Amino acid sequence: MSIVRFSPWELDRSAAERSWVPAADVWETPSAYRIDLEIPSVPAENVEVAVENGILVVSGERKHAENGEEDRALRLERRQGRFSRRFRLPKDVDHSAIEARMEQGVLALTVAKKARPEPRRIEVVAA
Fold first, then answer.
1. Cβ within 8 Å of residue 113, ≥6 positions away
2. Euclidean distance between CA atoms 104 and 83, whole angstroms
3. Higher pLDDT, 18 or 105
4. DSSP per residue over 31-88, as a string?
5. Which residues sit opposite 111 in a β-bridge?
6. Residue 103: how many CB atoms within 10 A of its CB?
7. How crowded is residue 83: how many other Cβ atoms within 10 Å of its Cβ?
8. pTM of the model
9. d(CA 43, CA 59)
10. Which of 40, 56, 74, 91 is deepest in the core (most CB within 10 A)?
11. In this structure, how many other beta carbons lie within 10 angstroms of the beta carbon of residue 60?
């Protein structure tokens, strides 16, 4: 009889095989947030970016590479199929100023922050 030791850090292979979730990095600058998603081999026309109720949704599909009819796959390790990532946006973002750019397999999303109101002095006048 063998003992199997539980490790919470091990990947559940059955769950991983059912879905594909691209890795993401999120950065903050003084004027914007930037989200970089790794989606190699996914053309820009297969990616959709939308904002709904303060949530940024990125979805798309990576398809199997087309090979000749006589080609036979011996091993397929790259994930294929649909993917989706959701990001709750902070309250200080400008939903109308979101840009998306695809470069070398990375989707770079720039979400501009709203301009902060400048402090101002209000003059008090005597009645």
1. 30, 31, 32, 33, 92, 93, 94
2. 18
3. 105
4. SEEEEEEE-TT--GGGEEEEEETTEEEEEEEEPPPP--TT---S---S--EEEEEEEE
5. 33, 98
6. 9
7. 19
8. 0.72
9. 12
10. 56
11. 20
Distance (Å, whole) CA 47 – CA 101: 11
Which residue ranges make up each domain of the chain?
A: 20-62+79-113
Token digits for 21? Answer: 């979730």
- Look at the chain and count its residues: 127
Residue for token pair 């649909």: 82
CATH code of domain 20-62+79-113: 2.60.40.790
Owner of token pair 């999303």: 109
- Collapsed DSSP state (helix, strand, coil) of residue 96: strand
The answer to whether 102 and 36 have CB atoms below 8 angstroms apart is no
Instruction: Count other C-beta atoms under 10 Å from residue 71's C-beta.
Output: 9
Which tokens is 101 given? 């750019």
